[in-house]
Amino acid sequence: MFDSQDNPSVAIRNANLSFVLFIVGSVVGVLNLSMTVPFGAGFEMVALAHNLASHGAYANPFYVLDTGPSAANPPLYPLLLALFMKVLSAPFVALAATLGNIFANALTAAWLPRISILFYRDSRPGIAASVFWILAVQLMPSWDVSYTVAALILFCLLTASTIKKNKLIPAIAAGLLVSALFLLNPSSMLIVMTWVAYLCVFRRASVKQTILYFAVVIMMLAVVIFSWSLRNYEQLGHFIVRSNLGMTLYASNNDCASPSLNEEELTGCYLSHHPNMSLHEAQTLHTLGEVEYDRRRTADAKEWMRSHPEKFVHLTAARLRDFWFPAQANHPLKSVLIWVATIFSVPGLIWMAYRRERITLFILASLLIYPLMYYIVVSDVRYRYPVLWLSLLPAGYFIDSVVQLRYGAKNSAVGRELTQAPSSSRMASAIASACLRIASSLSASIITRARVSVPE
Asked: Does residue 105 belong to any structural domain of this protein?
């Protein structure tokens, strides 16, 4: 059954569905408070927020030494945390940040069925994706990631629904939203630009409408990028967007490096090579200046990669694996869910391509382009989150198709197509059966190892 927002009863049903998923996501988020929630000293965005609240300067992100003005992290989330620190007493800052994290995650859960209607004209894949998201997502109030995911989905919904309108306000709203995304996570622009390209090709707006709409969006984004870069020029002496690539590459690729951040924290390797915890590195950064330090560490990392090709290839391959199948770390069951969703997303994408769903191009392009930068630095599950929703939706699409196939929903569009294509149905059944066996085997393996590795 295809959903139509033009039908008032369907629109009300979808609104109720989103509300229910928001409430469920919020409740599960609150229940996750029983787990360890990362926040406080040692987290760079928290340190920047503390300095903003205390001294009014965007500076000193590192734990071991005050190093001065910084562009190592984007500014918007530290600004939000600084606001919490200004208006709340210290014991309530972490709570406010965590509740904000829960709120953002719940919004994502509520919006996944709506983006599913946009992508597939059907909310059911989004419902399955939302269930995966609610159960798999971790609380990470020390980082921007939950806000970034919610803002990406909202940007897709907003632009798709307003690009055909000859009005300035929706374009300004889209410009404000994309600017906020840049200030939350500049890497998200890879997904944004892929979506813009998709809309330009497939949304059937006139050339004039498309040009005018995105001219406003791009001009507003350009103003924000220029303003932030100008601030960095005045504070750091260089016209740049961010200055953390070199320090991250250097701490990720060296003689003692391991694939994941969790492993490197256990061995102390990352901490001994990154200025956040290494006094030697922080003093060097302070002496050279953040930009020059970052450039030198970029050169050092490249030289190590050239001189240690076998180890670099091994690290990169392991990080590619960890990006799609994140390490167990402290949340083995949540990792299992991401593994299962990743496995299901593969036949989902194949089935989408077979059925010529246009959105397949956008999802595939995003999933191919965005992770590239994370294959050469230490892996961490939070790096996956900005595109996790783009894996969950194909997984939901696959699950919905299997359900239709299994229960013979002949009245649905998917069901009719499946029943009219016996060879395709057999292929889908075979893929479903294989994926279910693989997912079951992997889940059992991970849970078994988790029981062994987690102390009583």
From this structure: no
